[in-house]
Each structure stands twice: as C-alpha cells, then as structure tokens.
Amino acid sequence: MFRVLFNSEIGTTRHSSHLADAVLDPGEYGYVPTSGLLSGHQGCTGCGMVSGTNQVLRALKLTGRYVAASIGTGCNEVITTQNTSCWGDVSVDHNNFPNAASTMSGNRAAYEALVRQGRIPADSVINVAIAGDGGSYDIGLQALLAWIARNEDGIYVCLNNEAYMNTGIQSSGATPFGAKTSTTPYGKQAHGNSRTPQHLPDLALAAGAPYVAVATPVHHRDLMIKVQKAALIHGPCLVESYSVCPPGWNTESDFFYEITELALATRVLVLYEAELHREEGYAIYTLSHVPERWLPVTEYLKTQGRFQKLMRYPELVKRVQAMVDRRWEFWSEVLQHNGLPVRREEALREPPIEPPPAAASKTTAALATKEVTA
C-alpha cells in the first residue's frame, strides 16, 4: 500500500522531490542546443513516434552524458536501422520484441564493469530503452517489470501509438476501447476493441518505479523536462510518449498537432507525472496540463477512421465518455483546490478558467491522501 499525495500546483516543473537540483529548461535557450534523430530515417509523414524519439534524444543529451539506447523491435527499429547513421553519436542496439528492458540491463552491467576498471568515469552514460506499446504493454511487459524489480538505473520510453503498427495494425493492451484494428474489426457481433485500455505508467508505479510520466511531442518542453528527470533519478524510471500514427489511426498526415490538442481538450490524454517514495510509503502526483476548453470525446473520435464505425453506436460512445470522465475525476482534489471544474458539465456552465502558472518550486504539500494497492 502507498498513499497518493497531490502537488497543489498544476503545470510543468523542473524540480523533483528525488533530485537536489532542477533540470534544465529547454525553453530558456530559445533553441535546443543538442541533436536528436538525424536525416536518413524512413518514418512516415506526421509520425508522432519520430518526433518523440527526436525530442527524447535531445533531452537526454542536455544532461551532458553519453547515450546508449536499446531499441525494441517495432516501427522505431524498422525506420532507423536501415540507416543507423540517423542516430548520430548515440550508441544503438536493436533487440527482439520482448527484451528491450533486458538488453538495457546488459548495457548497464557492461557500463558498470567499465567504470570499475577505470576505463570510463562514473555517471558518464545514460542507458535508455525505447519501444512501442506492443513491445511494452504486451510482449515486453515481463522484462519491463523484472527490470523495475531489479531497481536498476535507467529510463524506459514507451512510444505509444496504441497498436502494433509495424506488423499490420493489430490491437495491443494500449488500444482504445471501440477502435478498429485488424484483430478487432466491426461486424454483426464484433464492435471493435472490446477491452478497456491499460495504462503502463500505472503498472510501472505499482511495480516500484520511482518516477513515471506521460507526455507528448506537441508539448515538447514538458516532454524534455520529464525525460531529463527520468534520466537523472536513481532507479528504473518510465516515460510514455503519446504518438500519433496517421496510417494506423486512418487520419491525415498533417493533423498531428490538431489530434493531440483534441486529445487534451477531451481529456482522452492526461499529461502528468508521479514520484514514488517507496520506503516512506507515498507517491506524489503532479497534473501537468488542464485544457482551457473542454470538449466531448466525439470531437476527438471523429478525426480518425479507426473510430468511424464506433460513432454509429451512441451507447458505445457514451461508454468511452464515461471512461474518460472517471479517470479525470482522480484529479478532483487538485482541480477543486485551484478553482477548476472537475466535470465537463461544470466546465460548460462556467467561462474558461486559466490554469495557474507552472510550478516554480519543489513539490508542495499534499492536498489529500488516498490508500491504493501497489
């Protein structure tokens, strides 16, 4: 069991209760003075995964350390390993679908051996594993949870495009309810994906990860700050990046920004971070973003062909809306503390309320506590 505490301030903060110093803010540069993916990759136009990988690498390099990356089988591997020069000065190894976290453990062991031999300095390398939702939620979950159980330093990045896009758009544990995929079609009896999607950061935190976060490349400052925290906090940390996939979602390739903002406005996507203090028995949750205007989930669903048939069933759309509303109510205490509506009906009755400025200090006192199972 651990208690859930809420940071009373909403927004992106450079501070962490696990770190003595704040991480760097890329917004203060005017530009980001590091490189990510270089030219030569074969990613699709409008791919959120490519943008996410690019920003993750640039954020990791802001720490001043060398980056060693373990890339799980998936789109990210397919589009970059035919021309590995696009990784620049990042050391990259491609591994099988289920073992990105396991390979990262091997890289970590090799790094520690080199440090003991005096061949490289301590704290000179960041070990990162990058995989999709198929290789994280499903096939690679055992290796991921075992890596967390070993309490090894490193950062695991899940590029979540909500299905197995590389192998034919099959459903995964992250596929939204009602979405059409090649394994969850629509017909007389079947109505798309019948499962409620899982949430990998919740699983990782319950397993003992000291830091988890959800981010999106569209809000690049938030993503890059969270990645730096995850890289510098001791222990196994996880960041999930919301990754728009035009072919798999059956949407326009130039609609990346609009879809992400609609996901935030409908609260389908919630940006947050959580820091677990295992020995003390509590976790501190920080809500990173509150939409200025609230929209029904239909505004998000109708932008994507994978939900086209779902829209024909009002009762299923209501189920999606209820799922979104229930998950958002988790943040009710911090929203009420900041004078923000909790329910969409309340938001529609009131004029839009600007969220408070981003947190500028270390995590503040908790507003409320809850007992949860971990």
Topology record:
Blueprint: E1 2-7, H1 48-61, E2 66-72, H2 75-80, E3 91-95, H3 100-116, E4 125-132, H4 134-138, H5 141-150, E5 154-160, H6 200-207, E6 211-215, H7 220-232, E7 236-242, H8 246-249, H9 256-265, E8 272-277, E9 282-287, H10 298-301, H11 314-328, H12 332-337, H13 344-349, E10 366-372
Parallel strand pairs: 1-9, 2-3, 2-4, 4-5, 5-7, 6-7
Antiparallel strand pairs: 1-10, 6-8, 8-9
Task: Please describe what this structure looks like.
32% of the residues lie in helices and 17% in strands. By secondary structure, the chain is α/β, with parallel strands linked by helices. A 10-stranded mixed beta sheet has the order 3-2-4-5-7-6-8-9-1-10, with helices on both faces. Helix 1 (48-61) crosses helix 7 (220-232) and helix 3 (100-116) runs parallel beside helix 5 (141-150). The longest helix is centred in the N-terminal third of the chain and has 17 residues, at 100-116.
What general form does the structure show? globular
Alpha carbon gyration radius: 20 Å
- Uncertain segments are 358-374
The CA-CA distance between the termini, in Å, is 5 Å
Could you give the order of the helices and strands? EHEHEHEHHEHEHEHHEEHHHHE
CATH top level assignment: Alpha Beta
Q: Tell me the CATH topology.
A: Rossmann fold
Counting DSSP E segments of at least 2 residues, the number of strands comes to: 10
**Helix proportion:** 25-40%
Please identify, by name, the CATH architecture.
Answer: 3-Layer(aba) Sandwich
In CATH, what is the homologous superfamily?
A: Thiamin diphosphate (ThDP)-binding fold, Pyr/PP domains
The structure class reads alpha/beta
State the helix count.
13
Strand content: 15-25%
Quick check: average pLDDT? Answer: 91
Total discrete domains: 1
Query: Biggest sheet: strands, sense, closure?
Result: 10 strands, mixed
Order of strands across the main sheet: 3-2-4-5-7-6-8-9-1-10
